[in-house]
Amino acid sequence: MKVLMFGWEFPPHILGGLGTASYGMTKGLSAQHNVEIAFCLPRPQGDEDRSFMNIIGMNDVPVVWRDTSHDYVNHRIGKTMDPQLYFDMRSHIYADFRYMWVNDLGCVEFSGRYPENLLEEINNYSIVAGVVARQQQYDIIHAHDWLTYPAGIHAKQVSGKPLVVHVHATDFDRSRGKVNPQVYSIEKNGMDYADCIMCVSELTRQTVINQYHQDPGKCVTMHNAVSPLSDEIRAIQPKRKPGEKVVTFLGRITMQKGPEYFVEAAALVLQRTHNIRFCMAGSGDMLEDMIRLAAKRGIADRFHFPGFMRGNDVYECLKSSDVYIMPSVSEPFGISPLEAMQCGVPSIISKQSGCAEILSKCIKTDYWDIHAMADAIYAICRYPALYNYLRDEGKDEVDGITWEKVGERILSHYQRLMG
């Protein structure tokens, strides 16, 4: 079975959980029998893991004809695309796009991030997807998150193949209900065209059914998972100070993630003890507000803000922690607690998170209940028996949540769609 996938992020260049999920899911799916994946990315760098699938850089796909040589194409994009594929794609330009801004190869440039002109990039991505959809051979289309839904729709209109849209989050999650009508429209349109809507949790599935008015029969819950730790990560040694505990928040510092509840809970904990440090790792539009809030509560000397982390830095941070906490207000899934539990770090998660549906060896509180959160932090740091239980049982539980199992379930839905 050949799958044409549209994505926006992929390791090692990730800005959030979407890239991590895309990697794990595609690897788990490619491990199934007779599955081939062509994964489209706005701007690959050439250092992505391509051992289990083909990555197509949308910024290497021409939409305007340029008369150029094989050697020049190889010089320009050889690191990220086979030059022959460029010429094959060029033969499938389907309209006159000379009004668009393109480079010397007739390709649209993408940032590969989330720029201010994001809606323009999404539209351009869907235009390029029309070339890819006409050139590639595939049995099914799979579009990840709202950014790629227009591309998925275009491919379906070109080919008539079944469309799967994967809902990693909705704008109801990102905005605490203050939905952007343009984003909502793109999300709903993608779901309306989809033959199957895969949601990362039952929580998200209910949002899709109730807020986007979708048929429950085509909405399925597809929980995320984690990849096994590499030898390099397992070899990382934690950095700890004797007699001192570390409690970590790691993620985007935005209103969706509930960072203010973490700070308020920390202030309550520090009223009882002073041998705990708090780490808020990440970046986002609420970072400065959180720095000011920590100062206002008089706990700035016990707080650290190391900024955005990726790769091994994430695992160094987790392994050096005694407690991991995710107080999200609305979390469609939340892979980070699973990664923490893999590292043997007891975790506290909000009941308003999708991963709470599949995790039992952790502590769950309401995101707003800072007193329950503080009690949980204090108990884990204070009582070794509780710490050891959550550390050992949590790791065992998460080790059984694998992307291969997710890939098997996804494939079964593909097969159902194809009859």
In words, what does this structure look like?
- This protein has 419 residues and is an alpha/beta fold.
- It folds into 2 domains: 2-225 and 403-417, Rossmann fold (3-Layer(aba) Sandwich), CATH 3.40.50; 231-399, Glycogen Phosphorylase B (Rossmann fold), CATH 3.40.50.2000.
- The protein contains 16 helices and 13 strands.
- The protein has a 7-stranded parallel sheet, with helices on both faces. A 6-stranded parallel sheet has the order 10-9-8-11-12-13, with helices on both faces.
- Helix 5 links the parallel strand 4 and strand 5 (163-167).
- Helix 1 (17-30) packs across helix 16 (403-417), helix 13 (336-342) crosses helix 15 (384-399) and helix 14 crosses helix 15.
- It starts with a strand and ends with a helix.
- The relative contact order is 0.12.
CATH class of the largest domain: Alpha Beta
CATH arch. level architecture of the largest domain: 3-Layer(aba) Sandwich
Q: What is the radius of gyration computed over CA atoms, rounded to a whole number of angstroms? A: 22 Å
**Overall morphology:** elongated
The mean pLDDT is 96
Query: If helices are DSSP runs of H or I spanning 4 or more residues, what is the number of helices?
Result: 16
Going across the major beta sheet, what is the strand order? Answer: 3-2-1-4-5-6-7
Major sheet description: 7 strands, parallel
The CATH topology of the largest domain corresponds to Rossmann fold
Q: CATH homologous superfamily of the largest domain - what is it? A: Glycogen Phosphorylase B
Our measurement of the CA-to-CA distance between the termini, rounded to an integer number of angstroms, reads 13 Å
User: What is the helical fraction, as a range of percent?
Assistant: 40-55%
Structural class: alpha/beta
Secondary-structure element series: EHEEHHHEHEHHEHEHEHEHEHEHEEHHH
- Low-pLDDT regions: none
* Count of DSSP strands: 13
